[in-house]
């Protein structure tokens, strides 16, 4: 049976199938119906040595079985065109090497013999000047802004396009591991004396600064020695090696100690809230003050109700100009829980400001946080 090889070329959003066929001379069967049916419906090039003889190939000799089968397959698939122009492709005059293309590719295809005789067959040159297939135009992405995580969006954009100022954490001061109120007081004295010397750089102030710094350093050395001895006294056979290593790292200034959290933060919060409510309760006021507040309460409630029903000219949606005027232009301060700084919002661009404006106005109209 015939030998066939095929490959598919991907051109933009379209494809071109290439098939090479060889039918040995001693094989009489040539089943091309399925392949030609595919070529009629999809851009395809078919070439090879078919060993066919038939008048449709401009062969003047006798017709063989393969030629009759080829004529039947071409008649049943009019969407396939033969490129050969009738010139012999074999040394003895046969039209054995055939080339077929899908009919829609016929206007941009050319066929010619090459003068070189590689064996007993002439070489064939086929050109397919295919038009440039444009890349598919994908629809513009659409996002569901109602379910957007704006903090995560800002951080992802910043990580993609804004370089970090530093990838390392701030190294703690050398006196961090033995820092206490006394050390803070000594540091404050040194800072105050240095400022005094900078304002008035006299010899007297310089001598004062040297004395203060020297005395403070001696006192901090004593505090450091005392803390070190206390820590060493606390070591025994039950001390873990990990805890000792962590403390040594802190002393070396390589790591801040982890501050232990409150053992029961919820109870402490309830305690503070209860204390605040007790201290601010109206029961602590004099009796005449409470009576006066009771008399004024209905009138105040009426004023609040009328104010809520009154349509003020300020109860309108925020405009883009008002939003940009409200943006902070000075340096960044410490960000909130979402870690979004003022400069990130300021440099979000027109699209970012429009999205932020839509979010703010929707929250304003719904009277709830997004």
From TrEMBL:
Pfam family, one: Exo_endo_phos_2
InterPro entries: Endo/exonu/phosph_ase_sf, Endo/exonuclease/phosphatase
UniProt-listed Gene3D superfamilies: Endonuclease/exonuclease/phosphatase (3.60.10.10)
GO MF entries: catalytic activity
Phylogenetic classification of the source organism: Eukaryota, Metazoa, Ecdysozoa, Arthropoda, Crustacea
Protein name, as recorded: Endonuclease/exonuclease/phosphatase domain-containing protein
Endonuclease/exonuclease/phosphatase domain span: 17-125
